[in-house]
Protein: Ribulose-phosphate 3-epimerase
Amino acid sequence: MKLIAPSILSADFARLGEEIKAVEQAGADWIHVDVMDGHYVPNITMGPIIAEAATRSTSLPIDVHLMIENPDQYIPEFIKSGAEWISVQAEACTHLHRTIQMIKQAGVKAGAALNPATPLSAIEWVIEDLDYILIMSVNPGFGGQAFIESSLDKIRLLKADLKKRKLSPLIQIDGGVNSKTIERISEAGVDVFVAGSAIYGSSDYKKTISEFKEKINK
Ligand code: DX5
Ligand code: ZN
Structure:
């Protein structure tokens, strides 16, 4: 089963609760919360208070994507917020193994995210512990950027590696997912599709999500 995870980064924050309910009613599977600290990435977005408000706005699982320095300091707060999935940028973790364990010990699903320039080998020795792997297909920081094509080869390589290891964490893609790119991304082997501007920038969320689902569930 392939999943659509709208990123609320592109939602109207003045009506955040309604915007989350709207994508839930439109067929979304997860709600993706992009946390940025102005240090790890050149943008500041939201913290645990918003993640907690998001969990109260929907019955869908909340997926927190931490694009922050020193994630260990904030993970307990995000766990308390009720998030069911939490990913950290592998590059931001000095002790990635410890960080992943910290998330899992709380009963939360743990993911590692890799920037476009980061090789898959960065997660080689934690791969067995991961519930999901996030391949960034833009440089993190902003919504609405163009999909980086080399991500497709990275997904294919990852998929082959997981098969060899007999592992099946979910593969998530984030950045530049839209009606033009989603089919090729799906063919490469992605399970969870994050999309911000393509969903929240569209006039009919239901139509957009249905189109996405048709294209990925062929
Ligand atoms: C990028 C964020 C993404 C972003 C995707 O730094 O991690 O989740 O919201 O935005 P779109 O779908 O507009 O590329
Ligand atoms: Zn994200």
